[in-house]
Amino acid sequence: MPAHPLRALREDIAAVKRRDPAARNAAEIVLAYSGMHAIWAYRLAHRWWRSPGLKLPARLLSQLARSVTGVEIHPGAVIGRRVVIDHGMAVVIGETAVVGDDVLIYHGVTLGGNKRGSNDKRHPTIGSDVVIGAGAKLIGDISIGSHSQIGANAVVTHDFPEHSVLTGVPAINRSERV
């Protein structure tokens, strides 16, 4: 069940403070963190997306947020609580993506699809407590287990279990090699 909007706002601010050593105070986060602005716009757009007759306004809001923040989140995506998009710019989260709680996403990340013209699931599912490094590309209907780390610029095109450490092109699980 989603958190009450005010509680969710407090959780988001606390999550940024916990994850970003440069975050000095709540006012700075509320006023200057484009990743948080994108998440907050997404939440409203997602609510509209689920309401009959509001899909177009939801898409328009998501596009407005994209132009302001540099972060594109389709309103049909499902995003958990306390998700932090750090540095924001050039993040893309597709329509059927699912992102768990307490996920940290850096700039340039794509949660993209690999099928066209399909109403089927075509974007990644990310577990909770996952870190996705700058420039990583996760493509297709894949699942990444909770408590995983995805390195910068990794290209991930198939499922990985919990506690994975993914790096490379194509990504391999470095936790299995230790």
Automatic annotation (TrEMBL):
<dbReference type="InterPro" id="IPR042122">
    <property type="entry name" value="Ser_AcTrfase_N_sf"/>
</dbReference>
<feature type="domain" description="Serine acetyltransferase N-terminal">
    <location>
        <begin position="7"/>
        <end position="39"/>
    </location>
</feature>
<dbReference type="InterPro" id="IPR001451">
    <property type="entry name" value="Hexapep"/>
</dbReference>
<keyword id="KW-0012">Acyltransferase</keyword>
<dbReference type="Pfam" id="PF06426">
    <property type="entry name" value="SATase_N"/>
</dbReference>
<comment type="pathway">
    <text>Amino-acid biosynthesis; L-cysteine biosynthesis; L-cysteine from L-serine: step 1/2.</text>
</comment>
<keyword id="KW-0808">Transferase</keyword>
<dbReference type="InterPro" id="IPR011004">
    <property type="entry name" value="Trimer_LpxA-like_sf"/>
</dbReference>
<dbReference type="InterPro" id="IPR053376">
    <property type="entry name" value="Serine_acetyltransferase"/>
</dbReference>
<comment type="similarity">
    <text>Belongs to the transferase hexapeptide repeat family.</text>
</comment>
<dbReference type="Pfam" id="PF00132">
    <property type="entry name" value="Hexapep"/>
</dbReference>
<dbReference type="InterPro" id="IPR005881">
    <property type="entry name" value="Ser_O-AcTrfase"/>
</dbReference>
<dbReference type="InterPro" id="IPR010493">
    <property type="entry name" value="Ser_AcTrfase_N"/>
</dbReference>
<dbReference type="InterPro" id="IPR045304">
    <property type="entry name" value="LbH_SAT"/>
</dbReference>
<protein>
    <recommendedName>
        <fullName>Serine acetyltransferase</fullName>
        <ecNumber>2.3.1.30</ecNumber>
    </recommendedName>
</protein>
<keyword id="KW-0028">Amino-acid biosynthesis</keyword>
<keyword id="KW-0198">Cysteine biosynthesis</keyword>
